[in-house]
Each structure stands twice: as structure tokens, then as C-alpha cells.
Design goal:
single chain, mainly alpha, 10 helices, about 0% strand
């Protein structure tokens, strides 16, 4: 097992935010590709497959990548960590499934709040259980308050999308508009579950990275597992409904996979130093900042940049600082 030095909070948290910046860019690219192909599953397959090709090349061309590649099978055979950890990439595939099947019903705003809620809650749980390589981290009152404030701030930041849809969640961003709250319950469970499992994915990847000696190998294994799941689902879909449109010629449609390599790899690297919760909160901050930047610089049709969007993003950053600073014991009581 190779031990890499831990990053201090002031160095690791900006990296987590930077990794989160790639998430909305990937979402915009994959969404455009899904529209072009008229097939969300096919877009996910293309994204995962291009990411897999990138990781194979990186693993073969870089000395550190080759060293990590040589450690994958020995680590799995020796049970250096539970073997189920090699299936962590399937959680990423589940998130893509959730996007494909529920965004049209819930809208992007409600989908974002659902996934952030699941991820934030599970981040506390994973740190408490000590599943990740950073070990156990206490669930303090300040961390809980910071997490609740993060969820509220994200909801505030995306609230203009609800207002634009006349208060009907399903109509936000072109959703279907279900009749009432009860109709949203089942579609909501999928993004909440996907968000909840994301923290476990980061913990699994971080643990595997410690034993592989590099996040390159952990990221490669993620893309292998996710690609297998998505190609299987796509084969079933094609057998039932047939293929979608042909692949586009424009090169930028294929950047979603490399973007995934960035935030999966950095996430696997950072959880050992920051813990799962702080890594996840940093990525959430980056996701909101990246979404805001995209909406300002390259707005999509129907984009809204309201004061609540900006203020909610700022409040999210403040909440994350509150949850991540090394407060002394009893600080809340004082």
C-alpha cells in the first residue's frame, strides 16, 4: 500500500471546488448530446466510453498510471478492501440514469436539491462510520448546521427556476408537470438515492486509491464498472426501442467523459485528506459556481440569473466554510 501525503484544508478545499466546476459543464454537454441523439442513455454511454478511453490512455502512458494499473488485481485478490468497492462506478451510472429518467419530470432545480440533500446527509453518515480513508469524523452540531444551511442555500439558489415555472416543479426547465406532490414522490426517490450513494462512492474510491497508490487506477476502475452497467442498459433499450440518432461530428460533444475523469479522480484523491463530507460540500459549491458562470457566459434558452441565484450561491459558500472550519470543542455552546 502506497501512502501519499495528506493535503491541508486550505489546499484541498479549493481543489474540491475546482472539481465541482466540471460537473455543470459535463451536464450541459451530456444534455446537449442527449438532445442531439434523442436518447439519454446513449449520451451516457458515449460519455462513460470516452472517459474510459481517456483513462486507459492515461494509465498506459504515465508511469504512475502503469504502477497503479499493476496494483489493481493484487489489491482485489488480497482483499485489501471489500471487493464490492470495484463496483463504485455503478453509482455514477445510477446518477446518469436518474438524470435521464427524472429531470424531465422534476425539472433541473428540484433534481439538484434532491441530489444535494442525499449527498449531504450521507456525507455526515459516511464520515461518522469511518468508511472512507480519512477515518471517523465526529458529527458535531456545527457540521450539522452547516449541512442544513447548505441544503437551504442550494434550494434558494435554484428557486428562480421554480418561479419561472409558476411554482410547478415538474414544469421547471421543460418538465412534464405532474398533477400534485404525491406524483413527485416516486421520481424524487431516485435522485435522492443517487445523491445519497455518491458519498459512499467517494469513500470507496478514496480507500481504493490508498491501496492502488494513485487516483488514476481508481478512476479507471470506476469507468470500467460504469461503462459495463450503461452498455448493458443501452443494449436492452436498443432491443426494445431501437437506436437513436447517429453520433454528431462536432468534437465538443465528446468532452463530457474527460470532465468526469477530472471530478472522479480529484474526489478519490481528496477524501483521504478532507473526509467525504467536506469533499462533497466543496464539490457542491463548485457545481453552483460553475452553473452560475455558465448561465452568465453561455446561457441556455430560458436561463434565469436572478438575485436569489447569486445570493444562494454565496450563502452556500458561507455554509460550507461553517461546516469545514476546525472549530474548537464546545464552540456552539459558547
Amino acid at each position: 500500500m502506497t501512502s501519499s501525503p495528506r493535503l491541508p484544508l486550505l489546499a484541498g478545499l479549493p481543489l474540491a471546488v475546482g472539481a465541482g466546476l466540471a460537473i455543470p459543464v459535463q451536464g450541459r454537454i451530456n444534455g446537449a448530446l442527449g438532445t442531439r441523439l434523442n436518447d439519454g442513455i446513449a449520451a451516457a454511454v458515449v460519455s462513460f466510453s470516452t472517459g474510459l478511453v481517456v483513462m486507459i490512455l492515461v494509465s498506459l502512458l504515465l508511469p504512475r498510471g502503469r504502477a497503479g494499473l499493476a496494483k489493481i488485481l493484487p489489491a482485489v485478490r488480497s482483499r485489501a478492501f471489500p471487493r464490492i468497492y470495484v463496483l463504485a462506478g455503478g453509482i455514477g451510472a445510477l446518477l446518469v440514469f436518474a438524470q435521464s429518467f427524472t429531470v424531465g419530470i422534476l425539472g433541473v432545480a428540484l433534481f439538484t436539491v434532491a441530489t444535494v440533500t442525499g449527498q449531504t446527509v450521507s456525507g455526515l453518515l459516511v464520515d461518522k462510520l469511518g468508511i472512507g480513508p480519512a477515518g471517523r469524523k465526529p458529527v458535531t452540531a456545527i457540521r450539522v448546521i452547516g449541512c442544513l444551511l447548505t441544503i437551504a442555500a442550494v434550494a434558494w439558489a435554484v428557486s428562480p427556476r421554480f418561479a419561472a415555472a409558476g411554482g410547478t416543479p415538474g414544469m421547471a426547465d421543460g418538465g412534464a408537470g405532474p398533477d400534485g406532490p404525491a406524483a413527485l414522490l416516486v421520481p424524487l426517490l431516485l435522485p435522492v438515492a443517487a445523491g445519497f450513494l455518491m458519498s459512499f462512492q467517494q469513500a470507496m474510491n478514496g480507500t481504493a486509491t490508498v491501496h492502488y497508490g494513485t487516483p488514476i487506477a481508481a478512476t479507471l476502475v470506476n469507468f470500467v464498472a460504469g461503462s459495463v452497467v450503461l452498455w448493458t442498459a443501452y443494449a436492452v433499450k436498443v432491443s426494445v426501442a431501437g437506436p437513436g440518432n447517429p453520433l454528431p461530428a462536432e468534437w465538443w460533444y465528446y468532452l463530457g467523459g474527460p470532465m468526469g475523469c477530472v471530478f472522479i479522480g480529484l474526489g478519490a484523491l481528496l477524501v483521504r485528506s478532507l473526509g467525504v463530507l467536506v469533499t462533497g460540500l466543496g464539490m457542491i459549491a463548485g457545481q453552483l459556481l460553475g452553473s452560475l458562470a455558465l448561465d452568465v457566459v453561455l446561457p441556455a434558452p430560458g436561463t434565469i440569473v436572478a438575485p436569489a441565484t447569486v445570493l444562494g450561491t454565496i450563502l452556500t459558500l458561507a455554509a460550507i466554510i461553517l461546516a469545514t472550519l476546525p472549530w474548537p470543542r464546545g464552540a456552539l455552546r459558547r
